[in-house]
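Researcher: Please predict.
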Amino acid sequence: MYSGNNDCSQQALTLKLGVTDLVRFAARQGDLFSDDFLGPDAQAGLRGHQQIQKSRKPPWQVEYALSHVWQIHEVEVVLSGRVDLLNNECEPVIVEEIKTCFGAGHLLPPQRKALHWAQLQVYAALYACESAHNTSNAPLCMRVSYFDLVSQQIYQEEETIYAQEALAYCQDLLQIYVAWWQRVTAQQNDARKYCQHLQFPHSSYRPGQRESAIWVYRQIRDGGPLLIDAPTGTGKTLSVVFPALKAFAEKHCAQTLYLTAKGSTQGNALNCLTLLDPTHQLDFLVLQARDKACVCLSADANRRDSCATESGMCARTLGFYDRLPAARLAALNVKHLTPDVIQQLAEQFQLCPFAFSIHLVPWFTFVIADINYFFDPLVRLGCFQESGAQRVLLIDEAHNLASRARDMYSGELNGELCRAVYKSLPQQFHMLRKPLGKLLNVLQLLDHTQLQEQQLPQLLSFTLQELLQGLQQTGDNGFAGGLLEGVPQQYRQWVKEIYRFVAILQLKSEAHVFMLEALGKENCLKIRCLDAAAHLKKLHTTAKTSIAFSATLQPFSFSLQQLGLPGNTQCLQLPRWFPPYNQLTLCCRFISTEWQQRENSVTQLAELIHLFHNAKPGHYLIFFPSYAYLEMTLQKYQQLFPNDMVQCQQAETSDEQRYEFINRFLHQKQSLLGFAIVGGVYAEGIDYAGDALIGAMIIGTGMPQPSEEQQLMADYYRAQGLNAYQMAYQFPGLIRLLQTAGRVIRSERDRGVVMFVEPRLARQDYQALLSHHWPLAFSDSQQHTEELLCKFWGNAPHDNVLAG
């Protein structure tokens, strides 16, 4: 299917394969270890390689290209790669690989080092094929040079292998890989045949849906990016998934990644695939987050105990790669891999569910996953690192990508968390105590003047490198499951924080700033990304095409810049498809919601909410710009109207509490009033269909709260020659408003009211932006508002709301 730079050519029995891909797939054995341990970044690693390579004079050869054609299971395999160093004028010939690291190479996990040796054995086999060694069975010297970038020391290990042994080993790996590749290719061919006859699942298209599908197919075929602004209820998911499968049928792509910013939207794609493939002819995979998938991280103590061992390691990580092949084959036979199915297979084969699903990603036609698996520099999967000439991105709710990406490319060192970990370090982590103590001292001594030039003090950089050496020794970056016992509660969070800070430090650009925040007696040092567009742009180029879609991508110029899409991106705006009389869009401009006036506005606002809620019995949501404003208004509302029951969004809620909140709106029969936050979990990605929601009041402009970071962002955009106010405040706020308003009308049969409480929306600049969406009526008093509401509900052509 699609894995790294593996390429199935047009000839059915030809496979082009890289050495690294072969080794990663076929040579792994034993326990699970992490692929994403934090070593040097690509630039630092390249500099380290070049430093050693330049020190070698002739007869040493650098980046020596090796290639050979093998016949395996009637498949012509072109295996190729480049060995870092080769000396073929000595006896025995030396084949050498360079591995850069932080700390001594001998401290690397043995499973990782085993892959280094496997890679060298394959290179030795390739060299033997192009020389006389394959007939003479001459010895070859394999050498790994571990280059510690901190100490600048080189640690070398050598082994001797005979040509015939290397050839036999390489052929064994090829047998494993090709057998699997043939199985996957056969299934892919069957899926393509099915998709060739796939029909649109409904008798007709919704307005704009067919146009969207045509554009998606065309862009996948031709390889160009596409931005789709489609109103709520258009059927966006089906209008991108269906043409993507048709493009797959015609071999215009090999793998589709359906990327979401929120877990709630994954269900839309899953339902769509189930609708299109009721007989399980297609193969798809839904990736679940590690904290939800992993048994050893479960909140259920019995589940956690089920994978505990005397050593403290997760039992499902031990011998993982020995059990993986059978589980992988079983998964391919099942085809529809939902989180529940993955859990069942992981239980059957005693594998870590999360790691199991990650290892399946390269081989499945359609993958549904969070956007961080493609765009986050620390979470991005290894199989996506290489250019994907046959990979398509479908980015759902794409308006969320920019803010998520800014967080992905930001990091922090929290002094309070560092102190808590320092105090609770167990004895087995003694190697961390000294560098962590140094880090705490450096953080406490930092002040704003040291960061004025946006450069990290040299002492802190050196201390972080020492800390990475210590972390490498703990082995935490080796075993993916990690220790279950004896680890401080906050240790894993702290390790992730350290790794992310160092990784982002290596990626720092002009769009990054250092910020210092006091946390009690400790400091928190942040490196914040103000604009991730440049990073996103690079990643878009690693796919054939990116299709980004949402109901709120206007203005297109803003979305193109934020998402890192090129200027030649095709932009498609679909028309609103429901009758305009089905929604009353009202702006109440007689209550000021600016933060200086909020305390004085709560009485009038509470009265307006009561009027809004009582104009027509049913389900209503009131969206506030902040929890503080919500609490003030709630207190006044309950004082004035004690008999009204109000359900409120909490700052910290579990999945169960969120489900309960939403479920009341979906199933409760009596009138319901909810208070929530603009842009929050109840304002996006939820389908309040039919009578589930007949009115939404949205208070404020939706603009981000003023802060030091927002001001820095505005300054950054101003320096780029852009409108700072629009880029940092107005446009992000507008998107929040529109997303929230889109919860009310979900089908052509729905009727409802969207009420904005914000005088500023009457300004000409806002009117120009809102005119793309619906006509706006204005109200200047409570009485006028009541008249407009009564007129709208009284003129309803049919009564489709719930009785009180």
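Model: The radius of gyration is 29 Å.
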